[in-house]
């Protein structure tokens, strides 16, 4: 009898609707691979699609704040100040990990690469070589990113710009000789610019890094576990990989 009661309790718990949980978030501005307000239902941005997949996986879980867009620096301040609960997607860095937490499941992987004009015969193989290049013309990198801080730490002279589109325009005009950025972002903007015959990717992948779900430092452990479980299911069934492939 006891065994049947336990089985009945387990079945009832499975049938019970998930407890409602609403978390605050925000969209990142000027990052159309992650969040694209003009992408429509088919391509709203990789990170927004991951967020929606989490909501489908856990129907009781909801996110508010998606009507707001904020530049990366503002996103970081919101997380550090606890004004948003979760943000899809951020790279890790020692400075960031002091201010907030990360869920344990990687969302997708980006590669650090260089884009040059197609007629440039040089190929930087190390950050030291890139630093030597930058003495003549600073390397372009997205403003306020972990990538920018990494270059500065490696003594690479940089010019920080607001978007990949702006960087490609500057590169095409000869105002710089290289853009350092994320492969998935740069590839999309090169394709959209219809100027692919003017640019090339360098041969070197300087680093590979996963993007993560960032969580405010004092988010309850139960909320983090709920998010992590949803992401683990999306990882196991191949959804995360399929979404990343869609945007490459």
From TrEMBL:
Organism (species):
Roseateles saccharophilus (Pseudomonas saccharophila)
Residues of the Solute-binding protein family 3/N-terminal domain: 30-248
Under which name does UniProt file this protein? ABC-type amino acid transport substrate-binding protein
Q: Do you know which InterPro entries this protein is assigned to?
A: Solute-binding_3/MltF_N
List the PANTHER family hit by this protein, alphabetically.
AMINO ACID ABC TRANSPORTER SUBSTRATE-BINDING PAAT FAMILY PROTEIN, MEMBRANE-BOUND LYTIC MUREIN TRANSGLYCOSYLASE F
Give the residue range of the signal peptide: 1-18
Q: Which Gene3D superfamilies match?
A: Periplasmic binding protein-like II
- Alphabetical list of SMART domains matching this protein: PBPb (SM00062)
Asked if the Swiss-Prot or TrEMBL record annotates the protein with the keyword Signal, the reply is yes
| Transmembrane region(s) | none
Keywords (alphabetical) are: Signal
Record has Magnesium as a keyword? no
Say which domain of life the source belongs to: Bacteria
């Amino acid at each position: 009898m006891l065994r049947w009661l336990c089985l009945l309790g387990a079945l009832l718990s499975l049938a019970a609707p998930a407890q409602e949980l609403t978390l605050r978030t925000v969209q990142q501005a000027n990052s159309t691979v992650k969040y694209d307000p003009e992408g429509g239902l088919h391509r709203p941005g990789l990170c927004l699609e991951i967020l929606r997949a989490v909501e489908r996986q856990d129907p009781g879980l909801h996110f508010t704040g998606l009507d707001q867009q904020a530049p990366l620096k503002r996103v970081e301040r919101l997380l550090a100040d606890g004004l948003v609960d979760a943000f899809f997607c951020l790279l890790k860095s020692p400075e960031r990990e002091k201010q907030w937490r990360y869920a344990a499941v990687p969302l997708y992987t980006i590669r650090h690469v260089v884009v040059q004009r197609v007629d440039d015969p040089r190929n930087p193989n190390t950050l030291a070589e890139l630093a030597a290049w930058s003495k003549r013309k600073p390397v372009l990198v997205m403003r306020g990113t972990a990538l920018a801080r990494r270059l500065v730490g490696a003594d690479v002279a940089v010019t920080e710009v607001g978007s990949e589109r702006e960087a490609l325009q500057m590169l095409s005009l000869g105002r710089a000789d290289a853009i350092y950025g994320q492969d998935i972002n740069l590839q999309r903007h090169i394709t959209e610019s219809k100027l692919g015959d003017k640019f090339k990717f360098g041969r070197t992948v300087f680093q590979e890094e996963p993007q993560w779900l960032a969580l405010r430092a004092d988010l309850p452990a139960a909320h983090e576990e709920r998010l992590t479980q949803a992401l683990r299911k999306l990882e196991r069934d191949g959804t995360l990989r399929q979404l990343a492939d869609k945007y490459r």
